[in-house]
C-alpha cells in the first residue's frame, strides 16, 4: 500500500513538473488563427470588450466573451497536449448578431464536447490555444490595443464579495442601466442606474453577473454574494 501511494505521489509530481507553468495567468484574445492563413485580429465589430482567458495554477480556467462568462478545467497529457473538461458558460443574449456569433466561435474552442483535446503553448507575452495544429486562438498578456473604448477595463464593482450593497466605480463612464443575472444567465432584476449603491441583500449566496450599459456599450462583471 505504501509503495502504491509513493508511486502515485511520484507520478503526480512528475506530471505537475512537466506541464508549462508559463501558461498560468490572465490572457487577452487578439486573434483567431487558421493554418496557412494570417491570424485574423479581433475588432470592435466582433466584441464590445476584450475577451479574456485566465488559467489558474490548478489548471482550472475561466474567462469572459462578448457578454457571457465561462469556466472549465484542463488536464496535462504530454508536452503541449491537454484534455479539456467541465466546460460551462452563461447563456445571455448579447443583443448583437456579430457579438453572438463571435462569442460562439470563441467558446467553441473551450467546449470539451466538441474539442476534448487542445494544444496550449507559449507563455511570456503570447499564448496559443489550438483545437488542431494551426487552428485556434492567439492571446497576449495585455489588453489588445485595437479594442477601443473598452468600457470593461474602466469600470469596477466593490466590495466583491458583497453582503448587502454594491458600489460601481465608473471612472468617468456614464452608466445608464444595469441588470443582474444568476450564473445560468437568468435575469433576476433590471433597473435604471441613479449613481447610488445597488441593493443585493435579497440575493441568495452565490455567483452572479451584473450587466452595465454605458453609452450603448455593454460590459459584464462577476460578483459573489455572501
Automatic annotation (TrEMBL):
Domain Secretion system C-terminal sorting: 158-224
Top-rank lineage group of the source organism: Bacteria
Pfam families from the UniProt entry: Por_Secre_tail (PF18962)
Signal sequence extent: 1-18
The keyword Signal is annotated on this UniProt entry: yes
Keywords: Signal
Record keyword Signal present: yes
InterPro entries assigned: HslJ-like_sf (IPR038670), Secre_tail (IPR026444)
Protein's name in the database: Secretion system C-terminal sorting domain-containing protein
